[in-house]
Amino acid sequence: MIAMGATRPTSQFHAPNIGASTGVDRLVGALDAQDANDGVRRLRAWAHTALDVRPGERALDIGSGTGSQTRHLADAAAPGGAALGIEPNPGLRAVAEQRTEPGGRARFLDGDALSLPVPDASIDVVWCERVLQHLLEPEKAVVEIARVLRPGGRVALLDTDWATTILHPGDPETVAAVTSGALSAAADPYSGRKLVGRLAAAGLVVDDRGSQALLQDHTTVAWPLIRMLGESAVRRGLVTEVQRDRLYEDLTEAAAQGALHMSVTMFGAVAHRPG
Q1: Dihedral angle of Cα 139, 72, 26, 236, to the nearest 10 degrees
Q2: pLDDT tens-digit profile of 149-170?
Q3: Residue 103: what pLDDT?
Q4: Which ranges carry the Methyltransferase type domain (predicted)?
Q5: Comparing C-alpha atoms, which of 246, 149, 157 is closest to residue 194?
Q6: Which fold has domain 15-160+186-213+268-272?
Q7: CB 252: neighbour CB atoms within 10 A?
């Protein structure tokens, strides 16, 4: 879920990097997996409760991806309301439209997080999930959110903090070197911890905040991700092949015993525009 403007060029969610349909399929698979993640669902449920979307309101979903949250917002705003999803990736927009009931109150447009295609003070509720971490100028995106919110309008920002990545067990120095690779996954890997400050800097009043650790089930360990991080650490000279292989052995043994822990934390903040 990402709006395109000034995104990190290497991000897999950066629209110009997605040309083939197989690339879109991979993104859809990743977003669907996130939709099914228990931690993501709990944090979203908290944020939707805090936002309290009401019938007749206008909602905006920035970086709407496959449209799951746009549809949720549209349902909450019915009757009389509507939700607009902003998504720069045409493949993801097509999937969102295919999954949305024709003639419904959820619709989707191409757009940029730094220049939202809606008038000033015209939106009651903004949802922005896992977008700011990919932007080179996230502060400008939050200022843009403040611009489109009406006085009293609410916003929910949800984002990952990649520096909270935990992998256990293993030699602490090896684990630290390997998990440091997660910090290259985003333009701002510390985005989750900055949400409150960015809202306040844009003149918005923070009403609530929340967090959720996204836990990796030891029975379905993300071995491709672990190996990708391990290989990256070896290439960068942070660990030796022997250290990497020892870590793999420790993790494999722990997974067999039900003792492996792998997680990253998402944070959320809900705020309103005063006035």
Answers
A1: 30
A2: 999 999 999 999 999 999 999 9
A3: 82
A4: 60-156
A5: 157
A6: Rossmann fold (3.40.50)
A7: 14
Q: What pLDDT is attached to residue 217?
A: 76
**φ, ψ of residue 257 in degrees (nearest 5):** -95, 0
Q: Indicate the pTM of the whole model.
A: 0.89
β-pairing, 261-272 vs 123-129, is: unpaired
Torsion region of 79: left, alpha or beta (phi above 0 gives left; psi -120 to 50 gives alpha): beta
* Contact assessment for residue 123 and residue 60, using Cβ atoms and an 8 Å cutoff: yes
Taking the alpha carbons at both ends of the chain, their separation in whole angstroms is 30
Residue type, 56: G
Contacts of 34 (CB under 8 A, 6+ apart): 40, 130
Strand partners, 49: none
Q: What is the number of other CB atoms lying within 10 angstroms of the CB of residue 268?
A: 21
DSSP, collapsed to helix, strand or coil, labels residue 193 as helix
Q: What is the pLDDT of residue 203?
A: 98
Q: Report whether pLDDT(8) > 60.
A: no
Structure tokens at 79: 């009757």
Return the structure tokens found at 6.
């000034």
Strands 58-62 and 123-129: parallel
pLDDT score of 2: 44
Residue 25 has pLDDT above 80, yes or no: yes
Query: Which amino acid is it at 118?
Result: V
Tell which residue, 33, 38, 34, 30, has the closest CA to residue 11. 30
C-alpha angle 47/39/191, rounded to 5°?
A: 65
| Distance set, CA 78 to CA 169, 195, 264 (Å) | 48, 29, 34
At 144, list the tokens.
Answer: 């843009």
